[in-house]
Amino acid sequence: MKKVLFIDRDGTIIQEPPVDFQVDSLEKLAFLPKAISNLRKIAEETDYELVMVTNQDGLGTDSFPEDTFWPAHNKMMDTLTGENIIFADVHIDRTFEHENAPTRKPSTGMLTKYFDSTQYDLANSYVLGDRLTDIQLAINLGAKAIYLGEKAIEQPEHTEATALISADWDAIYEFLRLPERKASVERITKETQIWVELNLDGKGKSQIETGLGFFDHMLDQLAKHSGADLKVKVVGDLHIDEHHTVEDTALALGEAYLKALGDKKGIARYGYFLLPMDEALVHAAIDFSGRNWMVWDAKYSREKIGDVPTEMFFHFFKSFTDTAKCNLNIKAEADNEHHKIEATFKAFAKAIKMATKREIKDLDILPSTKGVL
Question: What is the pTM of this model?
């Protein structure tokens, strides 16, 4: 199925005149900074089908004669075509806003063919534009929005539907070239029921419910300091003890990382972080090598920290490496046992952030001489 990038015209590709909002002469035609260069990269380096969707109020009436519209529009299209920016379709609505026509953005009357789920993947498509109507169009299509601007979005439904807010075309290209890496894992056994949602390229948001308060706190640290969005819901046999909850959560989390990393092309692969926290000092090194191995140098004098047995800390990280198929080396020193394990989770998170970072120039490169990870 095809993914589509629905792109507004005025204010998105070309500048919109501030007084009459009409590009009705060649003198008014001016491209937004970096729009052409980034559109070319998007056209050549991604698999999105480019579709232009624009409202042109009263086109063909006395208020906006066609003979003033087409010379500038055709010049714009010829310029884009010359840069290998080819639009599969151009949809122009000519009505006025007060007419409430079904073809006018944000309505979808011009775009009905894209609802064919055998041909188009709207859930993974985007509407790119500079107005709230473009965000609403994305909602109406069942797609996501990229908002070309800087001002905050107030409506919650618009916020939820917007994947990126930026006035910089460079950032838009990078977002489309580096799609979010997400994974969901459900692990159901007779001992635990676990649901994990992971977005490696999130903003460090977390929603954790394991039934163990201190464990929740540590997983919050993992999300916050790695920059990943993480949701974890656990229903465990805590009436027996904490073992299965901690172990199985680590197994599900490691599986989520393995899935989210995909083919691992373009990633740094290796990560190392040295983290101080008051008197604590923790070294954490990770290699998403495709092989599991664990080196652990940390001793605890307390039986528990909060509601988690200290013996489970090694077991958590070891279980993570088993399913994430990574090498992990941790060395932790501290006088305060709470500081020791919290600093460990933070260093672990920072090492992961480093190892999973991608570079656009390396997206086709697997970081291994073996040819497989």
Answer: 0.82
Per DSSP bridges, beta strands 270-277 and 280-287 are antiparallel
Q: What angle do helix axes 213-226 and 337-356 make, rounded to 10 degrees?
A: 40
Query: What are φ and ψ of residue 372, in 5° steps?
Result: -155, 145
The distance in angstroms from the start CA to the end CA of the chain is: 28
Per-residue pLDDT of the chain (373 residues; tens, 9 = 90+): 999 999 999 999 999 998 888 999 999 999 999 999 999 999 999 999 999 999 999 999 999 999 999 999 999 999 999 999 999 999 999 999 999 999 999 999 999 999 999 999 999 999 999 999 999 999 999 999 999 998 778 889 999 999 999 999 999 999 999 988 999 999 999 999 999 999 999 999 999 999 999 999 999 999 999 999 999 999 999 999 999 999 999 999 999 999 999 999 999 999 999 999 999 999 999 999 999 999 999 999 999 999 999 999 999 999 999 999 999 999 999 999 999 999 999 999 999 999 999 988 888 888 988 888 8
Q: List C-alpha distances in Å: 9 to 54, 64, 147.
A: 6, 16, 13
* Active site residues per annotation: 8, 10
SS (HEC) of the chain: CEEEEEECCECCCECCCCCCCCCCCHHHCCECCCHHHHHHHHHHHCCEEEEEEEECCCECECCECHHHHHHHHHHHHHHHHHCCCCCCEEEEECCCHHHCCCCCCCCCHHHHHHHCCCCECHHHCEEEECCHHHHHHHHHHCCEEEEECCCCCCCHHHHHHEEEEECCHHHHHHHHHCCCCEEEEEEECCCEEEEEEEECCCCCCEEEECCCHHHHHHHHHHHHHHCCEEEEEEEECCCCCCHHHHHHHHHHHHHHHHHHHCCCCCECCEEEEEEEECCEEEEEEEECCCCCEEEEECCCCCCEECCEECHHHHHHHHHHHHHHCCEEEEEEECCCHHHHHHHHHHHHHHHHHHHHCECHHHCCCCCCCCCCC
- Provide the 10 A C-beta neighbour count for residue 143: 24
